[in-house]
Write a structure and sequence with these properties.
Length: 121
């Protein structure tokens, strides 16, 4: 029983090596996640802050694909600076890693130990 539990927990934490899935926040309508192309193993999040009277802020998320203008950090940086803003690009490895820290990964890190505790005892 404990071995089965350990294996299931391990499976939850190990990412698939075939493809990476990232959260999407850009011009792809009605898309919330995206399976990255086979040669892309990282996700990205780009924040652009424009300090005009409206305090404009734009966030773009997706697969870290330099060949895709929608999510290429250099292209997004150029667009941000053209609006008078400052940008920052964050990249990460693993499925859904470009989410906010209070989302899926924290939920899993709380739920899995709680379920394990009740199954063991």
């Amino acid at each position: 029983m404990k071995l089965l539990l350990a294996i299931s927990i391990l499976v939850l934490w190990i990412s698939e090596t075939e493809s990476t899935t990232c959260f999407v926040q850009n011009s792809i309508l009605n898309a919330f996640t995206q399976v990255c192309p086979g040669n892309i193993y990282t996700c990205m999040k780009f924040d652009c802050k424009v300090n005009n009277p409206k305090k404009f802020r734009q966030t773009t998320k997706g697969c870290n694909d330099p060949g895709n203008a929608l999510v290429a950090c250099t292209q997004l940086m150029t667009q941000c600076q053209a609006q008078g803003g400052t940008g920052q690009c964050y990249t990460c490895n693993g499925d859904y890693c470009n989410s906010s820290p209070t989302s899926f990964s924290i939920l899993i890190s709380i739920v899995v130990p709680a379920i394990s505790y009740f199954l063991i005892f």
